[in-house]
Amino acid sequence: MGTAIRDKHLKIDQRKIDRAKQILGLKTETETIEKALDIVIKKSAALAGRERVVKRILIRREKMKAIPGDVTDWIREAREERDKRYEF
User: Fold this and answer.
1) Is the Cβ–Cβ distance between 17 and 29 less than 8 Å?
2) Phi and psi dihedrals of 54, rounded to 5?
3) What pLDDT digit, counting tens, does each position of 1-22 carry?
4) 23 phi and psi, to 5 degrees?
């Protein structure tokens, strides 16, 4: 995606810009707005990725049979095995 820089005239709450600039540790308002937009775009992409993963998990869960017995015991045993494997 190429960069398309354009002049914009926006009415934005100055307190929000100042606060964001302080939080992000940036010097200019332009840097601050650019960084804030980058953060929003990355967060949106991350959420979309998580949604795809959750959908795949739910589809697999529907296909699986119910686990017999006490599920908490099964989860505890799986966690213990994971901890042993990865030395937690």
Assistant:
1) yes
2) -60, -40
3) 567 888 889 999 999 999 999 9
4) -60, -45
Tracing tokens 């009415």 back to the chain, one arrives at 11
Calculate Rg over the CA atoms of the chain. Answer: 23
Select from 37, 45, 47 the least CA-distant residue to 12. Answer: 37
Distance of alpha carbon 41 from the chain centroid: 10
Structure tokens given for 20: 């964001």
Decide: helix, strand or coil at residue 87: coil
Instruction: Report helix angle 29-63 to 14-24, nearest 10.
Output: 70
H or E stretch including 35? helix 29-63
Residue 88 has a pLDDT of 59
pLDDT score of 27 more than 80? yes
Taking residues 50-65, what's their average pLDDT? Answer: 88
